[in-house]
Specification:
The chain is of the alpha+beta class and 268 residues long. It has two domains: 24-129, no CATH class; 146-267, Alpha-Beta Plaits (2-Layer Sandwich), CATH 3.30.70.890. It is built from nine helices and eleven strands. The strands form four sheets. It has a four-stranded antiparallel sheet with strand order 9-10-8-11. The chain has a three-stranded antiparallel sheet with strand order 1-6-7, sandwiched between helices. The chain is globular, with a radius of gyration of 19 Å.
Length: 268
């Protein structure tokens, strides 16, 4: 998710894009993660407009199916979203004619196992293999645009984290009225940055910097100590829930970003 983390819970516009460098697939040859609790959770859910093929799921479980991926777990790149999209694609029926908002709601329901509360954006992007723009009114549209002026990069903190406790921390902080007012400012900046990106505007750099400064205050608890100085110097922002994993940076297309202390991944 480029713009909208946390604030998307309150109706903020959000923009998320797929990153083709990262992927996953089901495998019966290599078991990386124990998914039994997730499988058990799926079987307790009820869905509108579609249904879970329990027989196929249970057969695959008996045969030792797992999810093999190069997406780092707990790094804010949508590893759980990719898994949920793969589950939906493999085990759900009558999905072809579902409208995009129905898809999002079902995928959010599935991904809530991992986060306690999910917007559904990450698995939706993975499932559709398209950028998704969520408007403030909740409407969504497919976006397949790239910038000729800007590029994003990921800064690897080397620290895995769990999303659910960070979301709980955020929701606790959000009970404060002054904090809510600052989140409203964040929502406005999200909208401006999304518009800048879609128009490939020179203003994106300045507004991304403003967003970084506001997030450094709002989400200070979500920025690891080893990142706080670099965060301010480079004008970074959260990638997902923060707390570790990757952070997101922006630079001009012709530039080569460099942060000696941390590995970087360029997103074109």
């Amino acid at each position: 998710m480029l713009f909208g983390e946390y604030a998307v819970i309150h109706g903020s516009p959000a923009l998320a894009i797929p990153c083709q460098k990262f992927f996953g697939q089901f495998s019966k040859e290599k078991i990386e993660y124990d998914l039994q609790e997730f499988w058990d959770y799926l079987k307790t859910l009820e869905f509108e407009h579609t249904s879970l093929n329990i027989e196929k799921l249970e057969q695959d479980i008996k045969e030792g199916i797992s999810f093999e991926t190069n997406i780092a777990i707990g790094y804010g790149l949508g590893s759980s979203g990719a898994l949920c999209a793969a589950v939906f694609d493999r085990y759900f029926e009558n999905t072809i004619r579902l409208e995009i908002h129905v898809l999002k709601n079902i995928l959010a329901q599935i991904e809530s196992f991992f986060h306690g509360q999910s917007s559904g954006m990450d698995p939706l992007v993975s499932f559709l293999q398209s950028g998704i723009l969520k408007h403030k009114n909740g409407n969504m549209e497919l976006i397949n645009k790239s910038s000729k002026k800007w590029k994003f990069y990921l800064v690897d903190t080397g620290i895995p984290r769990s999303t659910e406790p960070l979301v709980k921390l955020y929701m606790e902080k959000y009970k404060d009225k002054s904090y809510q007012n600052e989140v409203n400012q964040l929502i406005v900046l999200n909208k401006i940055c999304i518009e800048n990106y879609l128009k490939d505007s020179e203003d994106l750099g300045e507004n991304f910097s403003k967003l970084s400064k506001l997030e450094s205050v709002l989400f200070n608890d979500m920025i690891p100590e080893n990142m706080k100085e670099i965060y301010g110097q480079k004008g970074l922002k959260l990638c997902g829930a923060g707390g570790g994993g990757y952070f997101l940076g922006l630079c001009k297309k012709e530039e080569t970003p460099s942060i000696e202390e941390f590995p970087l991944i360029i997103i074109d």
